[in-house]
Q: What sequence folds into this?
């Protein structure tokens, strides 16, 4: 009898089928990598699904004498039997967040071809940022300017931003570009301290989008010359809220209102679903920019893999994602 693979094992196995980003034109100085990046992307999937945020937690769980852990260890071992040491795990997982935006964009392009989200609708995407609260205390402006850290729980890599809904928040911004019709599919992502300008990050995300995208739906923060210029270069139309007091009375306001409603329904619902699945409504479980990038971008990566897995099994792509991952 062939044992049935768990959802976690299935998601980890999908990493072997991922389209890899193009290799660098020339390898840098130093020793060549003994283990490919996909080994550590697989480990990241285990960490995100099982809520493990430290290397020793990952290795302790993998060492458990269960059939599922035996299957996972087999997927992390190279064909010649080599398995990374603890120091290698620490070093390579610390370096992994730098490669995740490229991997997310690469997988996003593949999923567009696989899921066909624009088969019966316009090729539009929504761009937005959602605020994630930092773990621990907050670093007030007067203390930051004085270089005084009043408590060890404060994550000094985070920063302040003002949200129209939540007010002042100390933490991070998760910047996302998603499809707006059919399935909510993340196509590009980045995580920054909360004070990073949305239009500056949008300039980094737009070049990563699939060539099929024709409409970019944004808010006032994206209505900036650099974002408009990038959209024009890619033969795309930026539709964003205008600055100034409401109600607007200029030509095109009714059209923008329709697109704004479409964007809000997509990105707001996706943000709520995403934060609910990965327990991100409260403070993030990590400290530091690198660790928080690994958590947040790793969660986006796992979300993409889950959509892929559910598509291959003929399951709903909007319903049942949270209980499926909770049970994995």
A:
């Amino acid at each position: 009898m062939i044992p049935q693979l768990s959802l976690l094992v299935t998601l980890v196995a999908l990493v072997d089928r991922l389209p890899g980003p193009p290799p660098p034109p020339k390898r840098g100085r130093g020793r060549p990598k003994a283990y490919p990046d996909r080994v550590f992307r697989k480990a990241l999937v285990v960490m995100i699904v099982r809520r493990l945020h430290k290397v020793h937690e990952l290795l302790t769980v993998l060492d458990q004498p269960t059939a599922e852990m035996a299957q996972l260890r087999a997927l992390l071992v190279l064909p010649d039997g080599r398995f990374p040491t603890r120091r290698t795990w620490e070093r390579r997982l610390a370096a992994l967040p730098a490669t995740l935006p490229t991997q997310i964009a690469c997988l996003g392009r593949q999923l567009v071809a696989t899921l066909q989200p624009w088969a019966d609708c316009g090729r539009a995407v929504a761009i937005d940022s959602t605020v994630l609260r930092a773990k621990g205390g907050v670093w007030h402006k007067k203390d930051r300017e004085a270089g005084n850290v009043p408590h060890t729980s404060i994550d000094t890599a985070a920063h302040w931003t003002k949200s129209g809904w939540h007010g002042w928040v100390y933490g991070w911004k998760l910047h996302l570009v998603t499809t707006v019709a059919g399935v909510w599919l993340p196509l590009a992502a980045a995580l920054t301290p909360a004070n990073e300008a949305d239009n500056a990050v949008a300039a980094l995300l737009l070049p990563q989008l699939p060539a099929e995208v024709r409409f970019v739906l944004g808010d006032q923060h994206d209505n900036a010359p650099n974002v408009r210029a990038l959209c024009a270069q890619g033969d795309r139309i930026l539709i964003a809220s205008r600055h100034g007091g409401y109600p607007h009375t200029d030509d095109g306001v009714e059209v923008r209102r329709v697109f704004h409603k479409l964007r809000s329904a997509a990105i707001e619902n996706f943000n709520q679903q995403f934060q609910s699945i990965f327990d991100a409504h409260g403070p993030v479980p990590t400290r530091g920019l690198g660790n928080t990038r690994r958590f947040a971008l790793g969660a986006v990566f796992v979300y993409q893999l889950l959509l892929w897995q559910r598509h291959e099994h003929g399951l709903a792509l909007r319903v049942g994602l949270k209980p499926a991952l909770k049970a994995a």
